[in-house]
Amino acid sequence: MTAEQLLLLLEQAVLPLYPQGISQGQQQPKLVLAYSGGVDSEVLAFGLSRFSHQYPHIACLLIHVHHGLSDNANIWVQHCIARASHYQLPIQIERVNVEKGARQSLEAKAREARYQAFDRYLNPGDILLTAHHQDDQLETLLLALKRGQGPKGLAAMGALQTYKQAWLVRPLLDISRDQIEQFAAQKQLVHIEDESNQDDSFDRNFLRLDIIPRLKQRWPGIATTAARSAALCAEQQQVIDNEVSHRLPQWLIQPTDPKALVTESTGFVLAGFAQLTPAWQALLFRGYLSYCDVSLPSQSQLQQILSQLLEAKDDANVAIQWGDFQIKRFAGIAYVLSNSALEPLPVNALQHDIRAVLLGEQNQASGRVGQLAFVVQKQMQAQMQQGVSTSSFPLLALPIEHVQVTVKFGAAGSIKCLPQFASTQRSKPRELKKLWQECHIPPWRRQQIPLIFYGDVLVAAIGLWIDQRYLAAPGQAGLSLPLLNS
């Protein structure tokens, strides 16, 4: 590989991503290089320097991530700053903390921290360059085999792929490690050597140091043929993805649908799902999880999820957890929820604020139930005009003097209330457990909805209903409790 060929690789990789017809005087998406200072990224930094002189209207930036995992990390920072100056390229040093939890890979946590650092510099349309090469692709493919992954994992890394609102480009993916090292030697490029690369307790290093050299000794072209296999898997996966994207919408239910839970995000309809083949069940539910932008469970976890969703009784409390997420089911619909969305609310503060509004001690209180926020505040109920109220929503009457006002989260299902529902007029109170079902409130949200009591009487569930016996009369002050499904 020559310097001209390296520049051509960069041009072929990134120039097609720039819109046609943009003049050199206009701001262009920038190129951001993940710059470790190792031989691979050093070669790519050299090429990016040539590219920046050829295309001065395209901004370029090097980002070096200081993980703090090596005693030499500060020396590497100085090396990268010096080399960036030599290449006449701007550089940003990002310091991150890598904390490995139980059953977590240090490699994976460091990678996650790196990409979070890169994200801070990527605007929509920008291009993130990484120096992954053909031997890295072979390592990735072998790791995918070790983990028992399917076509998506065996597709390994793509030379071009979308990355959030930006692009991720790997210009050297068809170039071998030997070619890169030969180029660095010819150009006398100074680079760092990370001592952790010799630690074969890391899976990638084990493959790189012990396994791949033996494979290449037996089959010199294995990196090339493995890359071909990865490309074929990627083609097959694209066909699968296209078909899943075509079929998936009929299984999704959006929050705006009348049958959906207004407190949740997109759900997955289970009616008829059991009639599909196991393969399509897995593909579609993975597609749903990807649509919701959550980390995917393992194959065994996915099988457990599908088994419980399809085989558990209708009234069973389905809750399958993996990582930071879990699946729940209600009324024939599955929902993926983050653990943080199910954490107990800071109820003491919210109880105090709502009660303070009722007693006239502050102007408003705000909170959240699932995906929806609410605000309660004191207002005046509109006057009647020609027998019709001009108000579009009812207000809760303020408590009379000396009545004890209580705000609770959760109450016995046997407590009764007489809600004022626009669609239903009742003459008798109904039990709370029946009202939860009528309002399609799933069990996991019932402890998050503030309930207002005057004395021992449940007078309102914020965002859902007001007891019709406690409605503010026209012209009177009351508490605004906007409906969650309004």
Automatic annotation (TrEMBL):
Domain of life according to the entry: Bacteria
Major subcellular location class: cytoplasm
Xref: Gene3D superfamilies: 1.20.59.20, HUPs
CDD domains documented for this protein: TilS_N (cd01992)
InterPro entries per record: Lysidine-tRNA-synth_C (IPR012796), Rossmann-like_a/b/a_fold (IPR014729), TilS/TtcA_N (IPR011063), tRNA_Ile_lys_synt (IPR012094), tRNA_Ile_lys_synt_N (IPR012795), tRNA_Ile_lys_synt_subst-bd (IPR015262)
Residues where ATP binds: 36-41
Catalytic function, reaction form: cytidine(34) in tRNA(Ile2) + L-lysine + ATP = lysidine(34) in tRNA(Ile2) + AMP + diphosphate + H(+)
Keywords noted in UniProt: ATP-binding, Cytoplasm, Ligase, Nucleotide-binding, tRNA processing
Subcellular location: Cytoplasm
EC numbers: 6.3.4.19
The Lysidine-tRNA(Ile) synthetase C-terminal domain, residue ranges: 405-483
HAMAP family, alphabetized: tRNA_Ile_lys_synt (MF_01161)
Entry domain remark: The N-terminal region contains the highly conserved SGGXDS motif, predicted to be a P-loop motif involved in ATP binding.
Biological function: Ligates lysine onto the cytidine present at position 34 of the AUA codon-specific tRNA(Ile) that contains the anticodon CAU, in an ATP-dependent manner. Cytidine is converted to lysidine, thus changing the amino acid specificity of the tRNA from methionine to isoleucine.
Entry similarity comment: Belongs to the tRNA(Ile)-lysidine synthase family.
Name of this protein: tRNA(Ile)-lysidine synthase
Species the sequence originates in: Shewanella inventionis
